[in-house]
């Protein structure tokens, strides 16, 4: 039996950093800023790196490096080079890839990440095989595990309900880190899945949007969600730390002042760091928040989503965790 199975996307990533990439303010873009290069010119790339990514592969490697028996359920192209590289990297890390599905009709997902000198990035993504998950793709009979870590599944609520029902029948605990397509369905449609989760992870923007409150009302969203989640709720706030709530008690963790090289995978690193430590420490929230923060910060200090993932229970000190009043 596995300690944990991750379910979600698997991609081949190429990171490109250039001093010629500029950030420009522009209200016509959803973020209010644009990442720009000169039209019609050749852009010099100072640094290029080929990696693998996707929520399922990133977290699978993170869990395995913590010493957990880990498998992944993902979809790749049937016989393309990108898919083979995804499998090779996971195998090198010791992740069980026997549950990976090979798609004969779509290629492995591919992302081009354009990095600015200060570590921000824009992602160009072909979702390919990863976006085609169906119920028949999951190797139900082979999914024997204590935990499942479910990441983005393209908003397929029917499939999510099947996974949660299967987990309940088998006594498997579910840690859920929903993607944008799932969250876009709204709180009413997601409530039954939230209630069925043993652990829910969101960032501040996701939590406030889901609960229909302003971004600066994060504590209100945290309080509302803590009344819905029966197990552990975790909400991250980037450099402002993270909140966790369980059994009527709330906690907040700090962060350290670090040099950010690349933001890719920081959320996945926090998620697998928290859940992995929670499993390893048998539910110690303070230790889970500490390790998750250190794991995420280590990833922020490297290019790519996996290079900085910590091994074992290693990590530097310097994270403060304090208990708060009950939410």
Overview of the molecule:
The chain is of the alpha/beta class and 327 residues long. The chain has a single domain, classed as Ribokinase (UDP-N-acetylmuramoyl-L-alanine:D-glutamate ligase, 3-Layer(aba) Sandwich). The protein is 31% helix and 26% strand. It is built from nine helices and 17 strands. The strands form four sheets. Strands 6-1-11-12-13-14-15-16-17 form a nine-stranded mixed sheet, with helices on both faces. Helix 1 packs across helix 8. The model has no long low-confidence stretch (mean pLDDT 91).
Biggest β-sheet: count, sense, barrel? 9 strands, mixed
Q: Which strand order does the major sheet show?
A: 6-1-11-12-13-14-15-16-17
CATH class annotation: Alpha Beta
- Please work out how many helical segments DSSP would assign: 9
H/E element order? EEEEEHEEHEEEEHEHHEHHEEEHHE
Strand content: 25-35%
Report how far apart the termini are. 36 Å
CATH homologous superfamily label: Ribokinase
CATH topology title: UDP-N-acetylmuramoyl-L-alanine:D-glutamate ligase
Descriptive tags:
single chain; 327 residues; alpha/beta; UDP-N-acetylmuramoyl-L-alanine:D-glutamate ligase; 9-stranded mixed β-sheet; 17 strands; 31% helix; globular
SSE order and pairing:
Layout (H helix, E strand, L loop, with lengths): L1 E6 L3 E7 L4 E4 L7 E4 L10 E7 L1 H11 L4 E4 L1 E3 L3 H13 L7 E3 L5 E7 L5 E6 L18 E6 L6 H14 L2 E4 L3 H4 L3 H10 L2 E5 H8 L6 H9 L5 E5 L5 E5 L2 E5 L12 H15 L4 H16 L20 E4 L3
């Amino acid at each position: 039996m596995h300690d944990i199975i991750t379910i979600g996307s698997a991609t081949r990533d190429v990171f490109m950093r250039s001093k010629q990439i500029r950030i420009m303010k522009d209200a016509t873009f959803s973020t209010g800023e644009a990442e720009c290069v000169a039209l019609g010119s050749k852009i010099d790339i100072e640094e290029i790196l080929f990696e693998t990514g996707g929520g399922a592969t990133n977290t699978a490697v993170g869990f395995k490096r913590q010493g957990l028996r880990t498998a992944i359920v993902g979809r790749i192209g049937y016989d393309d080079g990108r898919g083979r590289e995804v499998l090779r990297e996971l195998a090198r890390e010791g992740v069980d890839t026997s549950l990976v599905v090979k798609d004969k009709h779509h290629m492995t997902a591919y992302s081009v990440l354009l990095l600015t000198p200060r570590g921000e990035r824009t992602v160009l993504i072909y979702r390919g095989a990863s976006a085609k998950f169906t119920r028949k793709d999951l190797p139900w009979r082979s999914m024997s595990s204590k935990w499942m870590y479910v990441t983005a599944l393209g908003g397929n609520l029917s499939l999510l309900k099947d996974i949660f029902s299967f987990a309940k029948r088998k006594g498997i605990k579910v840690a859920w880190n929903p993607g944008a397509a799932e969250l876009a369905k709204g709180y009413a449609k997601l409530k039954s899945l939230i209630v069925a989760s043993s652990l829910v992870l969101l960032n501040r923007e996701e939590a406030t949007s889901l609960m229909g409150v302003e971004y600066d009302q994060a504590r209100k969203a945290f309080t509302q969600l803590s009344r819905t989640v029966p197990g552990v709720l975790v909400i991250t706030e980037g450099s402002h730390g993270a909140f966790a709530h369980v059994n009527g008690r709330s906690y907040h963790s700090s962060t350290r002042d670090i040099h950010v090289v690349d933001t890719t995978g920081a959320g996945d690193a926090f998620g697998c760091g928290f859940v992995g430590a929670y499993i390893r420490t048998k539910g110690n929230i303070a230790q889970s928040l500490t390790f998750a923060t250190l794991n995420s910060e280590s990833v922020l200090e490297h290019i790519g989503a996996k290079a900085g993932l910590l091994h074992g229970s290693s990590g530097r000190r310097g994270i403060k965790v304090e208990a708060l009043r009950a939410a």
